[in-house]
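From the shared-data thread, chain only:
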Amino acid sequence: MKLTVWTYEGPPHVGAMRVATGMTDLHYVLHAPQGDTYADLLFTMIERRDRRPPVTFTTFQARDLGSDTANLFKTACRDAYDRFRPQALIVGASCTAELIQDDPGGIAETMGLPVPVIPLELPSYQRKENFGADETFYQIVRTLARPVRKTPHVTVNLLGPTALGFRHRDDILEVTALLADLGVGVNVVAPMTASPADIARLGAAHFNVVLYPETAESAARWMEREFQMPYTKVVPIGVGATHDFVKEVVTLTGGKPSLDVSRLHLPWYSRSVDSNYLTGKRVFVFGDGTHAMAAARIARDEMGFDVVGLGCYNRERARAVRSMARDLGCDVLITDDYLEVERSIESLAPELILGTQMERHIGKRLGIPCAVISAPVHVQDFPARYSPQMGIEGANVIFDTWVHPLVMGLEEHLLTMFREDFEFCDEAGPSHHGVVSASRRESCAEPGVESMRPSTIEIVWRPAAEKELRKIPFFVRGKARRNTEIFAGERGLSEIDIDTLYEAKAHYAR
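Structure, as tokens:
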């Protein structure tokens, strides 16, 4: 039922697919019915990859359930190895195939394939996508990584980037450059870009840098126990966190701190005269735990925003998010129900939302600007340009991304002031669509004659009141409309005129 509506995370086998798709020379054999193959389309449709993920599906059908589906899986494994010749195989079942209990891992281990076969036990009905990615990477590392001689110079492994991750490709480049300034090289980036042979030499690095705890913390903890390799706890998203990350790396290496801030523009821009308008804006933050907490810190400490709500959808990070919300003194929300998120946003009435693509849609419905900070995202959040979230350039990108909706709000407010001009009225349409016709110009000459609300609404706004409402800045206009309608409804009024609007304003101002 959950798949029929919006969902923040897919089933755990989608997380496993993100790991497999990010890696090279690794193949995923997935015991799944016809129809579950939808998942691999995510990577070509949303991430715009030029090839399908390295996944072979058994695609059994209803008629196969009365026969031996285990043999279908064996055939799929042999065919996958013969065709792709991977260095290793991971095998598992989709949420639907889990119900028939064929044990793909056990079957594959008895087949005598000439490459390592890594079984995945992913409880589809208890856990979700991020857990699936974290568990898959952990099992791959646990199976393939070996103690090896350390590199002559100080190197690290960058852990956590996967396919379909939010700006992972660009974060790798930014953090690699950041470490190079500190005299630290990169041994392996994994899972993304790594092969099974690369996984085998993870132990050559001196420590691990965990970029995304959601997908790498289990593997990092295992290597800390088995190989005595420490790992970083700070995720370098934002100016403050980047400075803290550099200090943490220097502590582990014994070197000297070095951070080139010549490209850093966020602090100056956020203090500039043009940005004074942004100070104190009320923001609501929601996403995966890592990005939500980073965004909340940036919003409060670097942008001067007031964080009124903080939450995440992955319960594995709930404790850390709750702790940060207590420090911020704001509401906290741990849920994977987008309707609950929408109700929270509506009640808090923020002036900016920092969230996922789902909060972007919620913001459109509520008339609140939104900037995307976390997966799940859509195709527009996989830009062709270099657009990291981490490090110095990441801070610049974040400033532009977050401030743009609010600055456009200023432009909207100016357009509202000139709404009676035929070029700027609602009916005029986008300026790039050509010249406004005379008939449309006439219809725009008297703004407010037709109510913006659907005719089915019981409470009717008088044209003069509607015109006056449009003078209110767009980011609080929705709240003003709702409050006025509540005020009128409580008094049994079926129409709202200017006097009602002012009376409601005075009432809620008390």
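The first strand starts at residue 26 and ends at 31.
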